């Protein structure tokens, strides 16, 4: 697939850098009175609007890792830190649309390959995700060496399983296995059973995740939560919803998407608050909640309706095509900046969030064209 050219406003050495970023008038929603129809693309092609929303989802992931005071407790109680920082906890919860969006868009965009490719070819096409995973696990393992920790075989195995300092790397094996399951059921065209299975797996993930104090009276172990997160327990449902949207051609109005976002966001805050206040489950520990389903689906449906002008479309493709690299790299800047700047107030943490986004994006713009970098960043 041909890589999109960067628009002039993103060319670092462009003499016309100033004033060339597109105006918001070039980006609009489909009519709220006439639902219209989402973008129609060739099977497997990228949608610039989805790509732009991928960048917004990346910003949401960075927010999860930077804004809440839970990340800056100096070994204190994360629960108490969360109670003292309600605004940070709210920002964290409202950023939780990001990972469901990535899974939804993956199911939507990979479904064409699931139909066209036989199983062997499909496995080969997703195997690069595991190669990328191993590479970035090795990159983040260097942090242990920098901290002076000996890299023993047991520590190396633990890092390989959960990513070590790369706390976000679980996404890759989870996505890989969810896409493989999607390929198994893709050609049946019977959506009720896989969607039901996906929802059942999602409920299992809730039971052994944030709902464990409610069901078992005590939180699940960290190992159990990591296993539930790394396996396609929470991902499969979103991947299949994305695949179903692609296969069925069903359309939903922008108004429906906005209602789902509003309802999902409200329920996410309510669900997280109840779990925190009643069952002492910190809001920032909730990777996925029941309300994450309407929240994530609403954001994805909205991305299908956003109409982009030419420059916005180029910008969307440029940023979105780097979405994986942005996601994989940003934690290095979180650690690097935090080593010299320990944000205490909410304003400082918001500045920290912005610094990580800018530093990660600028780095990717610089190294993206380096030989061999594309396969490890896209």
Textual characterization of the structure:
It is a multi-pass membrane protein. There is one protein chain. With 378 residues, this protein is mainly α. The protein has one domain (43-377). Helices cover 65% and strands 2% of the residues. It has 17 helices and 2 strands. A two-stranded antiparallel ribbon has the order 1-2. Helix 5 packs antiparallel against helix 7 and helix 12 runs antiparallel to helix 13 (292-305). 45% of the residues are buried.
Q: Helical element count?
A: 17
Mean pLDDT over all positions: 81
Shape label: globular
How far apart, in Å, are the first and last alpha carbons? 12 Å
What profile does the largest beta sheet have?
Answer: 2 strands, antiparallel
**Uncertain spans, ≥5 residues at pLDDT below 50?**
1-46
Strand order of the largest sheet: 1-2
How many discrete structural domains?
Answer: 1
Spatial extent as radius of gyration: 20 Å
Which H/E pattern describes the elements?
EHHHHHHHHHHHHHEHHHH
Q: What structural class do you assign from the helix and strand content?
A: mainly alpha
Tell me the fraction of residues in β-strands, as a range.
Answer: under 5%
Oligomeric status: single chain
Feature tags:
single chain; mainly alpha; 17 helices; 65% helix; globular; disordered N terminus; Acyltransferase; transmembrane helix; cell membrane; Acyl_transf_3_dom; acyltransferase
Walk me through the topology.
Elements: E1 27-29, H1 48-66, H2 78-84, H3 86-94, H4 98-116, H5 119-146, H6 153-162, H7 171-186, H8 192-207, H9 212-216, H10 222-230, H11 235-248, H12 254-279, H13 292-305, E2 306-308, H14 310-320, H15 323-340, H16 346-367, H17 374-377
Antiparallel strand pairs: 1-2
Helix pairs in contact: 1-3, 1-4, 1-13, 1-14, 1-15, 1-16, 4-7, 4-11, 4-13, 5-7, 7-11, 8-11, 12-13, 15-16
């Amino acid at each position: 697939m041909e890589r999109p050219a960067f628009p002039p406003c993103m060319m670092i050495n462009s003499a016309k850098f100033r004033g060339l970023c597109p105006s918001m008038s070039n980006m609009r929603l489909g009519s709220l009175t006439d639902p219209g129809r989402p973008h129609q693309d060739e099977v497997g092609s990228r949608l610039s609007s989805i790509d732009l929303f991928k960048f917004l989802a990346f910003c949401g992931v960075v927010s999860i890792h930077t804004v809440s005071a839970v990340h800056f407790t100096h070994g204190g109680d994360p629960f108490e830190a969360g109670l003292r920082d309600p605004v940070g906890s709210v920002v964290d919860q409202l950023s939780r649309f990001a990972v469901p969006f990535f899974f939804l868009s993956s199911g939507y965009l990979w479904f064409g390959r699931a139909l066209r490719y036989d199983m062997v070819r499909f496995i080969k096409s997703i195997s690069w995700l595991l190669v990328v995973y191993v590479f970035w696990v090795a990159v983040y393992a260097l942090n242990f060496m920098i901290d002076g920790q000996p890299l023993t075989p047991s520590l190396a195995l633990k890092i390989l399983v959960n990513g070590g300092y790369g706390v976000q790397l679980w996404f890759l094996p989870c996505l890989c296995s969810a896409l493989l399951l999607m390929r198994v059921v893709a050609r049946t065209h019977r959506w009720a059973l896989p969607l039901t299975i996906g929802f059942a797996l999602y409920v299992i993930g809730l039971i052994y995740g944030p709902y464990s104090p409610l069901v078992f009276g005590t939180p699940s172990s960290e190992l159990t939560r990591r296993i539930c997160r790394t396996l396609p327990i929470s991902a499969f449902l979103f991947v299949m919803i994305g695949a179903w949207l692609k296969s069925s051609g069903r359309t939903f109005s922008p108004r429906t998407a906005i209602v789902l976002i509003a309802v999902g966001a409200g329920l996410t805050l309510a669900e997280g608050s109840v779990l925190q206040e009643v069952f002492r489950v910190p809001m920032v520990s909730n990777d996925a909640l029941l309300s994450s389903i309407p929240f994530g689906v609403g954001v994805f449906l909205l991305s299908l309706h956003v109409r982009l002008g030419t420059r916005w479309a180029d910008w969307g493709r440029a940023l979105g095509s780097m979405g994986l690299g942005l996601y994989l790299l940003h934690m290095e800047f979180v650690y690097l900046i935090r080593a010299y700047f320990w944000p205490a107030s909410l304003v400082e943490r918001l500045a920290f969030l912005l610094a990580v986004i800018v530093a990660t994006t600028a780095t990717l713009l610089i190294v993206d064209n380096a030989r061999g970098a594309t396969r490890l960043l896209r």
